[in-house]
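[step 3/7] inverse_fold.run input=structure_tokens len=294
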């Protein structure tokens, strides 16, 4: 029997609207939450291999905001970008065009989680306007450097092989439940057994919703070839970093270095959680966001 979401009740009380927008020649799936006349609008960009569902626990804690949650091109229910690489330049061009299509360019606060933190930071550094920026579990150092570099290179090889195999075998490898579960187990830090099981089920449900093996490989290369630190100095907007003290992808020491690279940034470090702030401590993250926006 599936484990019920601990955030379902709160989320069910928030108005929810689904739509599709044509962005750079591709259909982008969008879910909008909250009152349409809210004083603040927040556009949230999810992480690698996820979709808008991943940030719903945070959405559930912010009922007074208008929150717009698109699926990144090639993920969830969004189509890949035609004629464009799914690299940082492609994703930032998409984000800029999406904000125009949604009618919120320059007025919406931008939030990015994990890989989404790179996309959002790159876009803002390139001149995409926003009054403020929030990065949750930001990727704060190069993935190919340091002690975890060899594991990242192994993952690059895995995605490359998945893209090169015959279609049926390639999809089977990339959507392997075993690989997904290993990833999920390694990132979950909570000791709550029910919450851990729900997290694993969420990854099983949504982690394999990608459109093509090629767009997935391109997106993965983008996720490990860039990090927020290369864009920080060019971001003048007030920025909130919500980091985890047990994050295995960007250690907390690197987050303390990252915050110093921004002209105007503050860091909130959450203890006893890793790279899944949005699943394990969404209420803490939401409080930090509310204080920052206030």
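[step 3/7] decode complete -> sequence:
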């Amino acid at each position: 029997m599936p484990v019920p979401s601990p955030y379902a009740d709160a989320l069910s009380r928030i108005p929810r609207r689904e739509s599709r927008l044509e962005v750079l020649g591709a259909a982008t799936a969008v879910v909008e939450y909250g009152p349409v006349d809210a004083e603040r609008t927040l556009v949230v960009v999810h992480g690698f291999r996820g979709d808008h569902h991943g940030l719903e626990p945070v959405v559930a804690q912010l009922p007074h905001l208008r929150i717009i949650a698109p699926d990144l091109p090639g993920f969830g229910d969004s189509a890949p970008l035609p004629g464009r690489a799914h690299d940082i330049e492609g994703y930032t061009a998409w984000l800029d065009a999406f904000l125009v299509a949604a009618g919120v360019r320059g007025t919406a606060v931008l939030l990015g989680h994990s890989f989404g933190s790179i996309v959002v930071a790159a876009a803002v550094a390139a001149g995409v306007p926003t009054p403020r920026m929030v990065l949750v579990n930001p990727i704060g150092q190069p993935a190919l450097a340091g002690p975890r570099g060899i594991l990242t290179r192994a993952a690059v090889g895995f995605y490359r092989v998945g893209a090169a195999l015959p279609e049926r075998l390639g999809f089977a490898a990339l959507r392997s439940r075993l690989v997904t579960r290993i990833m999920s187990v390694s990132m979950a830090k909570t000791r709550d057994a029910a919450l851990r099981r729900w997290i694993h089920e969420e990854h099983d449900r949504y982690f394999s919703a990608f459109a093509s093996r090629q767009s997935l490989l391109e997106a993965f290369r983008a996720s490990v070839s860039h990090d927020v630190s290369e864009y920080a100095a060019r971001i003048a907007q007030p920025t909130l970093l919500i980091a985890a003290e047990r994050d295995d992808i960007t250690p907390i020491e690197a987050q303390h270095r990252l915050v110093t690279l921004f002209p105007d940034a503050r860091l909130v470090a959450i203890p006893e959680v890793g790279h899944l702030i949005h699943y394990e401590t969404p209420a803490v993250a939401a409080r930090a966001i509310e204080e920052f926006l206030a």
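[step 4/7] annotate
The first helix runs from residue 8 to 12.
DSSP finds twelve helices and eight strands in the chain.
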